[in-house]
Design goal:
With 344 residues, this protein is of the alpha/beta class. The chain folds into 2 domains: 180 residues, Rossmann fold, CATH 3.40.50.450; 134 residues, Rossmann fold, CATH 3.40.50.460. The chain is built from 11 helices and 11 strands. The chain has a 5-stranded mixed sheet, sandwiched between helices. A 4-stranded parallel sheet has the order 7-8-6-9, sandwiched between helices. Helix 1 runs antiparallel to helix 3, helix 1 packs parallel to helix 10 and helix 6 crosses helix 7. The longest helix has 22 residues. The protein is elongated, with a radius of gyration of 22 Å.
Length: 344
């Protein structure tokens, strides 16, 4: 009797709209190629603990339009656990996996790249993050759905700010990169934006907010969570297994600063995890399925250790080592070009 081919799939890191479509893409292509599909629960944690489920067509079809991930997720890093990478390798073998598709951001993909490097395991990746900062790809699942959410909230804040003649500050996600912050500000017509890549110009912030108040009676400022005015803010904050400081609260700092500087009422809204939830947009259903099925196709042909990246209008394989420990910040040119809406 022929040995059953088993393909594993996991989702790691923060959840994002589009994970379930990606899982569906993995399933359909894998089944077409003769694999049994093993869902690994809660990211790399599930591999360390051998917590799995055999996926079915009903599982993936029923989740296509739903947010979150049917497999669960975690920020577990095998390389930060004593003997973790060895356990991951042994469990990979004990589960009888012919390969694995890891769907995640820089951290999840980083672990995938390290396991490929250390043990030559057949693993391919699919990029995910609402921060939009995975390098070597022009699309990461979840970003455009999150952008729709943040832009909608910005527009709602403009309504209430106008009604009460006040300043509003909206804090959105973006640890190392301000893609979500900048694009939200541009799409929703914010009066100012502060991103991690560019040191905040305090005088410009005050002047632009004052001008908006004078000209239209209200102002809305967008702040990325990773934008830091004062490095002391990061002291004594907890970190996760990937060494990331827990962020959040930058919007409140900016709000308090503006309230004191302008002597007017300023309200802050921190969206937090609401940006991650909800059903994926159409684009976050279509492209993740295509990226996932290509990752499976390549793995079946022996092309492993690659990321299913979207570049120049096509899904292309990119070496996973190119994304390990890296991120994709906003280009200075883009900050400058869109800066026309916030300068002066």
């Amino acid at each position: 009797m022929d040995k059953i081919k088993r393909l594993g799939v996991l989702t790691g890191g923060g959840d994002a709209p589009g994970l379930n479509p990606a899982i569906r893409g993995v399933f359909y292509k894998a089944v077409e190629l003769g694999y049994e599909v093993i869902g690994i629960k809660d990211g790399w944690k599930g591999l360390l603990e051998k917590e799995t489920i055999v996926l079915s067509k009903a599982d993936v079809d029923g989740a296509l339009a739903k947010g979150g991930t049917i497999l669960g997720s975690s920020r577990t890093n095998p390389y930060k656990r004593e003997g973790g990478k060895e356990v991951a390798y042994e469990n990979f073998k004990e589960l009888g996996l012919s390969g694995l598709i890891a769907i995640g951001g820089e951290d999840t993909l980083g672990v995938a790249g390290q396991l490929v490097r250390d043990y030559q395991l057949p693993i391919n990746g699919v990029p995910k993050t609402i921060d939009f900062d995975v390098p070597e790809t022009d699309f990461t699942l979840g970003f455009f759905t999150a952008l729709e959410v943040t832009t909608d909230i910005l527009e709602r804040l403009q309504d209430t700010a106008k009604s009460h003649h006040r300043v509003m500050v909206l804090e959105v996600m973006g640890r190392h990169a301000g893609w979500l912050g900048l694009f939200t500000a541009v799409a929703g017509g914010a009066d100012y934006v502060i991103v991690p890549e560019k040191k905040a110009d305090i005088e410009e912030l005050i002047a632009k907010t004052k001008r908006a108040l004078s000209e239209k009676g209200f102002a809305v400022v967008v702040v990325s969570e990773g934008a830091v005015l004062d490095e002391s803010m990061l002291k004594d904050r907890p970190v996760d297994e990937f060494g990331h400081v827990q962020l959040g609260g930058m919007g409140e700092v900016v709000a308090q600063f503006l309230e004191k500087s302008l002597n007017t009422e300023v309200k802050c809204v921190i969206l937090g995890h609401a940006q991650r939830g909800g059903k994926p947009s159409v684009i976050d259903r279509i492209l993740p399925q295509l990226q996932a099925l290509k990752a499976v196709e390549w793995l079946d042909k022996g092309q492993t250790g690659v990321l299913a990246a979207y570049k120049e209008g096509a899904i292309k394989p990119v070496d996973l080592t190119l994304v390990v420990g890296k991120n994709r910040p906003l280009p200075e040119s883009l900050i400058h070009d869109f800066g026309v809406f916030f300068r002066g």
